[in-house]
Design a protein that fits this description.
Elements (H helix, E strand, L loop, with lengths): L4 E5 L3 H12 L2 E5 L5 E6 L2 E6 L12 H6 L1
Parallel strand pairs: 1-4
Antiparallel strand pairs: 2-3, 3-4
Amino acid sequence: MKLGYTIVYVPNVAESLTFFESACGLSRRFLHDVGDYGELESGETTVDFASPLHRLEGSGQSAGAKALS
């Protein structure tokens, strides 16, 4: 089994990306123009950050994860 993506819901995506880039040495893959979704690369797993508002109601998935499926 291989973990490809994990999503963490945070109040401020940009600040969270900056923190984990600095604290853990991870590389930023991207930050969405609106600022409510971003990704960091950490080897084989991509760590996604999304604002709680980014979550689609009732689907259990973020819009970013939905777009990738």
